[in-house]
Amino acid sequence: MENGEVLGGRFRLEERLGRGGFGVVWRATDTTIDRAVAVKVLLAEHATDREAVSRFVREARTAGGLNNPHIVTVYDYGWTAAGSGRIPYLVMELVRGRALSEVLKDGQPDHARGLRWIRHVGKALDAAHRSGIVHRDIKPENVMVTEAAEGERAKVLDFGIARLVTQTVRLTSTGNVVGTVPYLAPECWSGGVVDGRADLYALGVMLYELCTGARPFRASSAAEYMYKHLEEVPPRVRSKDPALADLVARLLAKRPEDRPAGAAEVVELLRAVRPGMLRPDDPSPEQLRRRADRAWQHGAAGEPAQAVEILTGLVPDFARICGPADPRTLRTCHDLALWLARDGSPGAAVALLDELTQAPGAAAQARADARRDLAHWQREVARHGPGRPRTLSLGALLGGAQGG
Asked: Helix, strand, coil proportions of the chain in percent (round to 5)?
């Protein structure tokens, strides 16, 4: 193929955009309607490979039947002369952007952006699965990040090895598994029936990669990857929101039935996730909770001043790592108020409890608990006075944390 060549009497090749293992992608113009398109042409050396040709044609027929803003649109396909034979070509939407694999080479993207891209891929998978199609090769190379009128958008491409959800995985004629080994679900290695939950596993691998900068498994051979996918459990993602770590763990479950039921469920769960990853030296929420428990033990042992000191330092960490409105953060503030009162500063405790009754995002029960203790310590202040003055406002405790 050369610049200026016209395929099918309609698609004029203008610029070679890239080459993959099976085809070359060109920027082209659909001369019939003067539209910029992308044309993927099967490499000539694969023209006699029936498996490669079938994969190529399947992509046209599969993706051509899907209509979703997060799936690259296939417009047409045809055949062109090459030597003494013919090779197929595929006409697609021209996506101006970069493959997610290229984006990741620049380092980890902003976490909120990464979660949004994964949601977009989830929407694409939901559309495919609802149409009875399993993609089977979800990976960063097959996700394009592009600018659209409504903002940045991720789009899925390459349905070349897709199968109907009822079909059984098979080996290729060369004895290889179908797909990309770092992203293949355990059931893809065992030759069993594969459904959309295999795509969700691959989505989990990508999500892990976006969160940590590395895949959950590293291996030097397909055999080693097979063992790790089948047997090893990767370290948990250290996110500020434990719901994200739980979701990644579910997506990477060894058994399909332990994963989310469908892509739509994954999209909804991701909508509720609070973005942000822990730094390598950050304590986990569980470690913070254990420190708070130790503070309470100091107070119960007659050392309220020690409890106040520990909790005053913990609240900003809870707010930064778990979120200012997280129940664990607000519960720690409540504990701090109680030990302030017992350490001779009931007036400061009343002020902090009063703020907790109005804290944005606080659960109804947390507000009720704060009102109950506020009423008690207001009566104590009325009887005995406010005690030692201290300035510990909720806004200062939580606001200072958010800058960390």
From this structure: 50, 15, 35
CA distance 120 to 112: 13
Q: Which of 137, 158, 317, 335 is catalytic?
A: 137
Which of 93, 120, 147 is the endpoint of a domain? 93
Helix (H, G, I), strand (E, B) or coil at 5: coil
Residue 7's DSSP bridge partners are 11
Contacts of 136 (CB under 8 A, 6+ apart): 161, 162, 163, 178, 179, 188, 194, 198, 199
Q: Which residue type, as a one-letter code, is found at position 328?
A: R
Task: List Cβ neighbours of 302 (8 Å cut-off, separation of 6 or more).
Answer: none
Q: Which domain, by its residues, includes 193?
A: 97-271
**Do residue 235 and residue 104 come from a single domain?**
yes
Give CA torsion, residues 30, 35, 36, 38, to 10 deg: -50
The H helix count followed by the E strand count for the chain is: 14, 11
What is the Cα–Cα distance from 169 to 107, expressed in whole angstroms? 34
Q: For residue 365, what are the CA distances in angstroms to 327, 337, 356, 362, 369?
A: 10, 17, 12, 8, 6
Active site residue 137: yes
Q: Is residue 1 part of a domain?
A: no
351 and 389: one domain? yes
Q: Which two tokens stand for residue 66?
A: 């899907």
Taking alpha carbons only, the member of 211, 246, 217, 247 closest to residue 230 is 217
User: Residues 338-352: pLDDT tens digits?
Assistant: 999 999 999 999 999
Residue after which a domain boundary falls, among 59, 74, 93 = 93
In this prediction the pTM is 0.73
Buried b vs exposed e over 299-335: b needs ≥16 C-beta within 10 Å? beeebbebbbebbbebbbbbbbbbbbbbebbbbbbbb
pLDDT tens digits, residue range 130-175?
Answer: 988 888 889 999 999 997 666 789 999 887 655 544 444 444 433 4
In angstroms, the CA 188 to CA 198 distance is 7
